[in-house]
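Hey all, quick one. A colleague (J.T.) asked me to put the magnesium ion job into the tracker so the inputs and the structure tokens live in one place instead of scattered across chat threads. No bug as far as I know, just bookkeeping. Sequence used:
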Amino acid sequence: MFEFLYPREYLPSVFHITPQKLRALGINTLIFDIDNTLVPYWIKVPTPELEEYFTTLRENGIAVSVLSNSREERSKVFCAKMQIPYVYRAGKPGVKGMERLLEKLGKKPSECAIAGDQIFTDVWVGNRSGVYSFLIKQVSPKDELITAPKRPLERLIVRHYCKKFNKEVL
Ligand SMILES: [Mg+2]
């Protein structure tokens, strides 16, 4: 009954999204949520491990970008060093921010995937836009105040999803 909220894939971390996997799906662009997908909300810049991962993606022909609901400063600081294109205050799960990003990148939804830790923002906007959705286990158990209340219902949906597809709840 929650099918429209189900991710296409559910993974323990972004590092499980490899260039090989994306290529097999016909995807050449990976769109990331920042908070609790890549880093906890209090970490301002990518870790060395993430920098290496972004570089590997790029070397393999995968464009890297960011779609964040946070204010500009968050994306600006996070994306600066690696010059990652971003759209801030994206209004996920609204599709306007996603459309702005795709236009900026010159990409069609079918060649993109989104990776995020939240069903009600990241997965939903992906599914609504025709962008392949990866649900990623949150990197920290600590959420921002705005996110915390949505978690119990998200967990319920994840449990339904895992039961239906015979997957393990992460
Ligand atoms: Mg997030």
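Adding what we noticed when we looked at it: The beta strands are 9-11, 29-32, 63-67, 86-87, 112-116, 132-136. The pocket of magnesium ion is lined by residues 33, 35-37, 116-118 (CB under 6 Å).
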